[in-house]
Specification:
heterodimer; A: 184 residues; alpha+beta; Nuclear Transport Factor 2, Chain: A; five-stranded mixed β-sheet; 4 helices; 5 strands; 29% helix; globular; B: 225 residues; alpha/beta; two-stranded parallel sheet; 6 helices; 7 strands; 28% helix
């Protein structure tokens, strides 16, 4: 009985989705306050990826920020001879692997990333941000364990902002963050 | 050739399946949660859908192991060169078309082009190089049918560039003409271009653009070279 009910709920959910998406141009898009402005979506990007030790990024929130074909391109690792281009689901796998590795080594894997400076260029429905970040293992840490810059491409569909692509690099001894990207 | 309607239907079915999974009360803890419903986006049929094996989504071998390397020549050697190559490869005379091979060699295999949303439509378009070739060719055909030249010359008139390590982003103002000698462009706009360097060369990861319109003029700071 319970199984039948579940199946019915499933069918109903599928039917509702069909009804909504088969007429995309008249269906109102789902409202998501994270897409309301460039400020809002950039804040949401940093908030959703940040999490205390023992937790994970807020994946459903992050998915709601990116275009369904949105890309994340992390820095190429020294042992990789190709770039890794990820969607949000693949980024999730990558984070979870890193978390598992940290756990095995008995290291904490809290992650708090925040924006410390932003250079923004906008024209019509396209914006790009050069967003300087720092990341800490715990919010109270005095110094970040890593800093870098996110290049973030954003689009507005007339209703809201989406992140199309995030590409980043990290600060290294031979790659310091230039002064012009240090100030808010 | 997959029609847009067919693709949309596929998307609807996918969304329905995903929604069903999301609603399933029996979903085991830790199982993937389906993404929330999203605004419809048209995606090139050749872009692998979410969930495709990783290898299909992006392999971008280093120049050494890359069969494209010979064709690339100097185009990837600097940001200046690759942006110049982008404009050069898309430009072509009336009897020709863009240099697709050259353009392909500029982009990561997962590279994207995102044209402006067409007026009167709610969805916008995310294209890979195959999708862009199709999109561009249709645009040329439409211009010819209107009695216009099928030629296309786009040049950069200004650039704002930010670089850090192996990442650059350019806000590149362009002007498009039907003939290089036309005094006025028939369209202007700005390309947002994301670039990455693999240690050997530059690649284009993503190009998104918007056009100048009566209610969307190019700000003065993006208008000078």
């Amino acid at each position: 009985m319970k199984t039948t009910l579940s199946a019915a709920v499933l069918l109903l959910a599928a039917a509702v989705t069909l009804a909504q998406t088969s007429v995309p141009r008249s269906a109102p898009p789902p409202t998501n306050p994270d897409g309301a402005s460039v400020d809002a979506i950039l804040n949401a990007l940093y908030e959703s990826v940040s999490h205390p030790d023992g937790a994970e990024p807020n994946w459903s929130r992050m998915r709601g920020i990116f275009l369904p074909v949105g890309m994340l391109i992390p820095p190429k690792r020294a042992n990789e001879d190709m770039f890794t281009v990820l969607d949000v689901d693949q980024f999730r796998e990558r984070v979870q692997k890193a978390q598992a590795a940290a756990k095995q080594k008995g290291e904490p894997f809290g992650f708090f990333e925040k924006e410390v400076a932003r250079k923004l260029d906008c024209f019509g429905n396209v914006c790009q941000a050069f967003s300087t970040y720092e990341a800490r293992k715990a919010q109270a840490d005095e110094k970040p364990f890593v800093r870098g810059i996110n290049s973030i491409q954003m689009l507005n569909d007339g209703q809201r902002w989406w992140v199309a692509s995030v590409v980043w690099d990290t600060e290294r001894p031979n790659n310091p963050i230039p002064a012009q990207y240090e100030k808010k | 050739m997959i029609s847009k309607a067919a693709l949309a239907t596929g998307g609807v079915l996918l969304a329905a399946a995903a929604s069903a999974q999301f609603s399933a009360p029996t979903r085991p803890p830790g199982a993937p949660v389906a993404p929330p419903p999203v605004h419809p986006v048209f995606v090139s049929p050749s872009i692998p859908p979410p969930g495709e094996p990783f290898e299909r989504r992006t392999p971008t071998p280093l120049a050494a192991g890359n069969p494209q390397a010979a064709a690339v020549g100097a185009d990837g050697s600097s940001v200046d060169r690759i942006i110049a190559a982008l404009y050069e490869s898309v430009s072509h005379g009336p009897e020709y078309e863009p240099n697709w091979k050259r353009m392909r060699s500029l982009f990561l295999s997962a590279g994207r082009l995102i044209p402006p949303k067409r007026p009167g439509t709610e969805d916008f378009t995310v294209l890979d190089l195959d999708g862009f070739q199709d999109f561009f060719t249709k645009g040329t055909e439409a211009a010819k049918q209107r009695g216009q030249s099928g030629a296309f010359f786009e040049n950069e008139v200004a650039r704002t560039l930010d670089c850090f390590g192996n990442v650059c982003q350019a806000f590149s103002t362009y002007a498009s003409r039907r003939a290089p000698s036309d005094p006025q462009p028939f369209a202007r706009g700005i390309n947002s271009i994301q670039l990455v360097n693999d240690g050997q060369r530059w690649w284009i990861a993503s190009v998104a653009w918007d056009t100048e319109r009566t209610d969307n003029s190019i700000p003065a700071r993006y208008d000078k070279k």
